[in-house]
Amino acid sequence: MNEKVSALLNDQINKEFYSAYLYLDMANFYTRKGLDGFANWYEIQAKEEQDHAMLMYRYLQNNDETVTLEAIAKPDKTFESLMDPLKAGFEHEKYVTSLINNIYAAASKENDYRTVQFLDWFVKEQGEEEKNAMDLINKMELFGDDTRSLYMLNNELAARVYSAPSLTL
Ligand code: FEO
Questions:
Q1: Which of 2, 22, 158, 162 is the S-S candidate for 110 at Cβ 3.0 to 4.6 Å?
Q2: Protein residues whose CB sits closer than 6 Å to any atom of ligand 1
Q3: Total Cβ atoms within 10 A of residue 151
Q4: What's the pTM value of the predicted model, to 2 decimals?
Q5: pLDDT tens digit string along 68-81?
Q6: Position in ligand 1 atom list of the atom nearest CA 48
Q7: Which atom of ligand 1 is found nearest the CA of 45?
Q8: How confident is the model at residue 169 (pLDDT cuts 50, 70, 90)?
C-alpha cells in the first residue's frame, strides 16, 4: 500500500476513536441533564465510531500494514444548552466526511482501487451520519422548547438500538 494512504488510514483509526470519546462525552452530558434517551442515542453513536475504527484497523492488518495506535485526545467541547451537543455533532460529522474524502482522494491518486472500494462504505455512511445529525437538530428546533414534546423526543431516542456495521472484512 502507498505510504501516505496507509498513514492516513492509521490516523483515521485514532480520529474514529476520538469520535467515540466525543459522543460518549455528549451521552454523559445528557445523562446529567436527565435525558436518558438522548444519552442512549449518543452511547450507540459512540459504539458505531468504535466499529469504524476497528474496520480500518482490520483493513490495514489484512493488507499487511503496520497499525500504530496513538493517544486519544480529551474531548474538548463544553456544552451548556441541550442543543449544543447536537450542533457540535453535526459539525464533527462534516469534519469526518472531509477526512474520509481526503483519504479517498489519496487512494484514487495512487490507483489503490481496493482502498477506494473499502472507503465507498464510509462515504455512504458519512451521508447517513450527517443526515441523522441534521434530523436531530431539526427535531430539537421544532420540539425542544416544549417539555412534553421533549419528553416524547427523549423516548424516541431511547428506542434506538445498536446494530453492527453492514460492512464486513
Ligand atoms: Fe465514523 Fe461518525 O463517523
A1: 2
A2: 16, 19, 49, 52, 93, 96, 129
A3: 13
A4: 0.97
A5: 999 999 998 999 99
A6: 1
A7: 2
A8: confident
